[in-house]
Amino acid sequence: METRGTMYRRLVFLLLGVMMLLPAARDHAAPVQASLPDGTLLNADYQRGEADQPAVLILHGFLQTQDFPTVRRLADALHEDMGYSVLTPTLSLGISDRRQSLACEAIQQHSMESAAAEIGFWIRWLIERGHRHLALVGHSMGSLMVLAALPDAPPEVERAVLISLTYIGQHLDVFERGQHQNDLRKARKLLTESPDRLEAYHIAYCKAYTATPAHVLSYYAWDQDHTLEAIRRAKVPVTIILGSRDRRIDPDWHRRIAGSGGHLIVIEGANHFFDDAHEFDLLDAVDRAIAGDSELP
Questions:
Q1: Which of these, 223, 201, 230, lies nearest to 213 by C-alpha position?
Q2: Of 221, 236, 256, which marks where a domain is finished?
Q3: Is the pLDDT score of 12 beyond 70?
């Protein structure tokens, strides 16, 4: 007859065996704070996933944060359902410890180059924590920033996924197209005559975006042609995911992307934000793109 001690040891070994058969536990989202060399504090959320899965960096859209709904839903699903390690940074936009979205009318102290540099910072952060296979994902203007960061990305960055990929300046509205051309001429003139002068410009959804000419021109450079050329020059596979009902882009944008060398996925019925039922279609498309099988039927 077994003693109580023997029965206890058997139970412990049985429980340990069951635990070893279970999948490795995944971390919940943990806030991360890091500093740039100039002392600027950066914020992000990090969810460590399964060791054999790539790490995914997801970047929010223009003037937003890591908590923007499209980004947050996707990040949580990729981690909880697919097992990826996921990092969702908030770009500083020139503001130390930024935690809230930035108003268009605020004085803007950032550029496309500063955004790309911060993406590079977080790529290095992931590599320093042992991740050797990375995918970059951007939403809306965040997709342009991912493209801007790709030329300097290390070999650990293996794929890019551009959701609701947009561009600057070629609006559907005739008035806005004319306004953009006026603003472009104004910024170019001020760049030589008064480079430190703050002026209000139209950019993306902002009607009074307050910035210096150099900063606004860094974004204005990313028109359709420049964006398509960046896709062609990318050193890694690029997947572009668009919603068929995205009203923020030119109807001809789909055709132009299809000839860029990137792989285009169009999700029927989805808008710019892939909300409601389309968030599941988006998750599936992003997962397939990260895994490298987005072109399979």
A1: 201
A2: 221
A3: no
Burial 173-206 (b: 16+ CB within 10 A, else e): eeeeeeebeebbeebeebeeeeeeeebbbbbbeb
State the Cα angle at 216 between 226 and 65, rounded to 5°: 90
Structure tokens at 268: 């029927």
Q: Which domain holds residue 187?
A: 169-221
* Residue with the larger pLDDT of the pair 76 and 295: 76
Instruction: Compute the C-alpha angle 220/64/114, nearest 5°.
Output: 50
Q: Which of 159, 187, 221 is where one domain is finished?
A: 221
Handedness of CA 205, 240, 111, 45 (dihedral sign): positive
Q: What's the whole-number mean pLDDT along residues 174-191?
A: 90
Do 118 and 209 fall within a single domain? Answer: no
Residues 200 and 252 in one domain: no
Q: Say how many domains are in the chain.
A: 2
User: Both 43 and 67 in a single domain?
Assistant: yes
More confident: 252 or 136:
136
Same domain for 215 and 231, yes or no, is no
Q: What is the pLDDT of residue 24?
A: 40
Distance (Å, rounded) from C-alpha 15 to C-alpha 7? 12
Max Cα separation, the chain?
96
